[in-house]
């Protein structure tokens, strides 16, 4: 008998099975193909805006994705450096073959964790309670908890022009039966769609007609463990090209042949990563679109054509590819396709990702309607952590919107639901200045420690960093500068203007042209880590703004502290609008804050709810 | 909780020929029905009027007209009964008492409006406008309040918000898709003019709001002058001219407003005029310090001076004290020979005794405070203090964001203040949801992964 069974070995399933096993609970991972554990069926990269910060957060909590990405990257870039600390995010080009095999090794070597190659037909229930799974072979495997991370496999259909096949990504068998059972158990499922572009033979591309994009010339890490080093000169480049007039004509002349526009697709596609035919239809005025050429792996001669996601038939795809500058002679190795699959309506879940109606059944990843590896991974981790907390009778881990992008993501899912595949965007976070790349550890290490996923060494390092940040700030605060000729001369040398009044290094750091490294002129800063210096600098430089963001968050937290009792009867609140009443009954928000974020629940409804609760529970 | 039936006397107590007792809630019709034997109200249609008597223990309390409004087509969206009874304190209070006995509860101040708001019948600005209408003390302020009720304030703020949203959406797209060429690269050079334009618009609204405030709240006015220049006869002339009532009211502000006069739609709140009506020598009696305090508090000083006498030392002292205030020098006793040998920038010749020149004074006051335009019809004035405060904060947040641009701060710092501004504007109209941001994001830009 297992404590936890994880169905599906993608990015969500990998995090889920590792977390529970590491926390000492006997875990089984069931996956259709062991060799496709943590595979990358879409772009060969990890991170990017918002997503990169999620990877950091996963690391801070004790998850695996950051470490795996560090081990298998072939190019690293910190994005948005000029746009400020809140939106900086790391992006890696991954060796997709290595990424998958490395994660597989980690899982196969993990104690407490068994892996079984099989398809799950049904959940196994006794008296309406989740008690395990039933495989397609008929075998029943029992467990206390089941985490469902089936990704895009439930009732999957692959579409390539008018060619429609009942299969999952990469010619894998679809998972049939589960979603039907879920519906019979009362879950609402929706049909979603996503797609992927063609891959071409790298040796057939003329890169001289494209722009080169290289990795950063300093070593970067997703993980807070920075022990891995690599040669920055040996990173693999990406290349940029554009669609042409010819591409436009090929697409518009063949639009009816696309699965999407030919009527074969019923699923709703992601707004934030549309297919190329979508882009041409919706944005007719744009003369050209960007196309990135990304290497898939050091061991494959394949290039991923980012931006050309499509469900056109093969002959049209070929014409499209050959219309791109630099790809006139390009040979397609794998054609692009669209995939349709069943996802559940995530509003049936608590913020712990546990089903409201079926105890001990958790959902994570694309099955909840998200898109993207990082979004999936963090949900797998959170579902598993909360499953374990429940098994151990401990407080669940619900991250708040001002605490982590993971908190924003899960709150959005369980509160608002999804209409199209949900992609995490920087703009979805209201308090992004607090949710930075550099401070993910400061935000989340204590949680990771409580959960038990951090060892002593990691925790001590975090404490040390925290201590150093305090020390650096204090040191700068007590270092006085007096407006005399000598000081001003030194300041001019640093590229800044005179001071007219007595000031401190702390205050001087607020000048945009001043950075903390310049202070080595004044102080011994070598004894502090780079990370501690960087974060102290951000804290000081943007202190006023961070305070404002905290003030904004405080307003939200006040609503968040206002809890709604689970036994509330919305039928008894007469003045609520009908739509609001239905939504509240369905979503069962835990706090007034969560209630206020439900679409269809207006500010007036929230006022009524607050007034009602005040009257009922205060007197 | 919320569906209890409330009752209140909705007209001013003790004034007027009729009074209205109003009930709102599920039980409103049922409760009134208990005391209205002539007709069964349970099945009468909405928006109908019924004649009869309010009766208690077979005793007629009053002859009344009832108006029935059925949910949801009423002000509060609940069932409403309005009982039109005879005026005077006793009858209305008696009927109120009966309704309370019948099961209604006493309405809190503003509760009818609050219910209308909570039930989604009106938005926050409209609710506030209802309050403004109730408190309106002149035709102009009533017209202003009505504009709030029409949702014009809502539209004004919504327009500002959508301009701001454009700016924010631009920034966010730029952050989310740093490599996408589709989005205009947002240097602060692009942001600054857009934000500055918004600041300019808000500044104009605030400038106009000063006029709105004057119309709504009146102008704190001090009538100043040395003894025997004719302050009290001037006041009497103003009063008679407009048949206005001088009321003794405790002002809602920290100042004591001692009288209110309505000059062609503009309200003058007279401060510390105690001495005037007793036609005593105020300055002498209260001393120069007190005069200073009065002058300090006043938004307008009506400085009365004698045409028939040369400027005295007291005059000069007072003129100096008031030189930085909005001031109209009233040269009184224009019917007598001119002995005065000084000219003033803003002055009018008046004979309080013969009531001449008063119309000129009125025009001067209007010119000074309404900037020549009191045509409420085609202008939107923000007059609610809460709105003005929030809008001032919005302007400050926007200026802060421009400050950040000047300090070469990264764009996400600039955005913090823009988001603050967005929330503040949302506070005005009671609507704060952030989903609008994403919709904007998507509708305007082509995005790819």
Q: Uncertain runs of chain B with pLDDT below 50, 5 residues or more?
A: 241-257, 273-286, 372-378, 433-449
CATH class category label of the largest domain in chain A: Alpha Beta
Rg for CA atoms of chain A: 26 Å
- Extended strand count of chain B: 12
Largest sheet of chain A: 7 strands, mixed
- The pLDDT mean of chain A sits at 91
Q: Do you know the CATH architecture of the largest domain in chain A?
A: 3-Layer(bba) Sandwich
CATH topology of the largest domain in chain B: Rossmann fold
Low-confidence stretches of chain A: none
Strand content of chain B: 15-25%
- Taken from the alpha-carbon principal axes, the silhouette of chain B is flat
Number of separate helices of chain A: 20
Which strand order do you get reading across the main beta sheet of chain B?
3-4-5-2-1-6
What share of the residues of chain A does DSSP label as strand, in percent? 15-25%
* Class derived from helix and strand content of chain A: alpha+beta
CATH architectural label of the largest domain in chain B: 3-Layer(aba) Sandwich
Based on secondary structure, the structural category of chain B is: alpha/beta
Largest interface: A-B, 54 and 47 residues
